Amino acid sequence: MAIFRVKIFSLFERFWHWLQMLLILVLLITGFGLHGFHNLMSFRTAVTLHTGAALTLLLLWAFSVFWLFTTRSWRHFIPTWQGMWGVLRFYAYGIFKGERHPYRKAYWRKHNPLQALAYLMLKIVLFPAIWITGLLYLFYFAWRNLPDAPLWLGAIAQVHTAAAFLILAFVFIHVYILTTGHSFRDHVMPMVTGFDKVDLSPEEEAYLRKDQPEDIR
Amino acid sequence: MLAAFLSVPQVQARDGWPTPPINPDRRAQLSGPLQGGTADHAKFPELQGPFATGSDVTKACLGCHTETGKHFMKNIHWTWSYVNPDTGQQLGKRYLVNNFCTNSRGNEGMCAQCHAGYGWKDESFDFSDETKIDCLVCHETTGNYYKTPNSPGNAACSVMFADRPPIDLAASAKSVDLPQRENCGTCHFYGGGGDNVKHGDLSSALKEPPRTLDVHMGVDGLNFACTACHVTNRHIWAGSRYHVISKDTEGTGQPGMRPDVATCESCHGLAPHPVNSLANFKLNDHIQSVACQACHIPEFARGGVATIVNWDWRTSGKTRDGEGYHEEGYIQGNGEHRYTYKSIKGDFTYDENVIPEYAWFDGQMRYTTIDTEFDPNAEFIEINGFSGSREDRESRIWPFKRMHTWQPYDKGRGTLVYTNLWGEDETAYWGNYDMNAAIAKGMADFGLDYSGDFGFIETLSWWPITHMVAPKESALACRDCHQPKNSRMASVEGIYLPGRDHNHWLDIIGTLLVGGTLAGIIIHSLVRIFSPKGEQE
């Protein structure tokens, strides 16, 4: 096993990440405005931006799901306990001692166990919670005449808001963790260039050198 | 400051908003689709006069308009009577008690100035006599026509109507045309005893309004006459205060159809906002539960004419040297002084540019009539209570004027009373100021029981607001309702209103979660900074 600089984030994946970041930022700002936490823009503008960003994000997600399954990239997000303790111990203790991060990216495992679990929870719990409630919210006019519709709308709005709070907390932690380790820049650049340090097996190295020479440096 | 600076050109840009078209053309008021009359009434020999009485003019009118008398005598302007088809309640000015001057019944000598007929002063009036119809009050356009009380009243009151120039009936007869705003306004702007006193959204400011006051009637806009919306069919008008269509589900209907409704939707349809933006799509959703008037009439009693919102009969009857008097205590927007006290009526409170009350309304008013027995310990007696809810398909959220009054009632029986206000005898309140005698007479005249013991009770009446529609750029913004504090819909129940409604626990927990995350990050990074640096990979 040896460390190489390998392209682990494809162009689509990087586009997905940064557009998603932008849209989530817009959704958080406009959403908390609609909720009444600030008056940075008119309600009308906030509704327009919020709905537009939400629909764009849903379209992006549709493409990303297709991408995840056609490229088999979904396997990066399978949860595992292997190495979890080491990562948890690092953030709780080792980081203060200046220890190195225990996890090394592998070609088919580019996230550490904590990351993989966090992203998986985001993908299968928080995001669905917010987009399903969001769509129900948006299409209220289609079911407003069902019995107790306003009560249901209230419950839906609360799930939507709760998910928004959790996503906001995730965003803070996600950005903070980028500052750990070497430098903020070292963490961000892979998502810009696509290349990061990866521990390759000799077979993986040989394969990449032969079939995808542009993906290994 | 920056915002204030930026908003100046914006306001100017808005004034030039192109819809409805700015049209400086002072053409005649638009009454409906039929334009270009086929007859010039000034040329009719029958109308050259001279006429001794208004009834003589009416006879001339009926000479050609042979069926109009029969049609007219069915309408509410003539009958002052309306039986609610749903509740069977006997309504109409002829019977109801209101919380302004309280009752026209028994006081027709004064109140029936606004009856579209000649000479109704008591029960002897003949409602089947076509020649008693007053055609001129609605159709003459000289502006010199007026009516005086049908009976002289107490000397203290009749002086108000002295010294008016004689009416040139022939000139009025030759001037007849479709009714102008001023014709309808003769009565409808002055209901309740003065300019805009009663409705709040119908005042003399609508005679020649700018489009900023009313986008439909504006002389620099569409210049609609009242009948452009209150379409007439055989002298029956569309639109009713007694039976409101709070939610029109028909829309415009086929061309030429639906002459019997005066809803916004009957012209603007059921999806009035052009679907060219996401926000407009959302606005069209609102039609289901919010009346157009709620957003498009941001305030009523605009245009410089105030409306009365409180009336206190308890203070009436004070005299100076045995004479009634009045006090001016309010200067309204157009500079006119208004009476805040009159011996004959008590104290008033005025208001202008009033933010309405909002409530679910199914269009059905439940009147407290002279027969209704109520619990005098109730907080308020609603003259016209109404209902409505989110669940009811007929209901929408409407704006209302709330009128509050302390008025006399029969303490012994728990009912409202008819008060004899106008008359020449010594029981007429106006001139004699003896409330008990006035009530005793007012009730006895109609064979009603009176315990002999009157008190004052707080009453409310509710006036759905529907005129003074502002141009669209002045309509409410979303946030006027969708905000946590000061929402216009603060008291409207049965809905989840985004922006207004919150689960406070969720907000507290969410804020703690996010705040705690930030605090955790700060602590974590501080510990990192101040930890001894070991091996760095």
TrEMBL record, chain A:
Gene Ontology cellular component annotations, sorted alphabetically: plasma membrane
Signal peptide: which range, if any? none
GO terms for MF: electron transfer activity; heme binding; iron ion binding
Localization per record: Cell membrane
Question: Which biological processes are named by the entry's GO terms?
Answer: respiratory electron transport chain
Main location group: membrane
Q: By its UniProt entry, which SUPFAM superfamilies does this protein fall under?
A: Transmembrane di-heme cytochromes (SSF81342)
UniProt keywords (A-Z) are:
Cell membrane, Electron transport, Heme, Iron, Membrane, Metal-binding, Transmembrane, Transmembrane helix, Transport
Q: Which residues form the Cytochrome b561 bacterial/Ni-hydrogenase domain?
A: 9-194
Which ranges does the record mark as transmembrane?
15-34, 46-70, 76-96, 117-143, 155-179
Give the bilayer topology.
Multi-pass membrane protein
Matches recorded under InterPro entries: Cyt_b561_bac/Ni-Hgenase, Di-haem_cyt_TM, Hydrogenase_cytochrome, Ni-dep_Hydgase_cyt-B
Task: Give the family per the record.
Answer: Belongs to the HupC/HyaC/HydC family.
Protein's name according to its UniProt entry: Thiosulfate reductase cytochrome B subunit (Membrane anchoring protein)
Native organism:
Thiorhodovibrio frisius
* Lineage of the organism: Bacteria, Pseudomonadati, Pseudomonadota, Gammaproteobacteria, Chromatiales
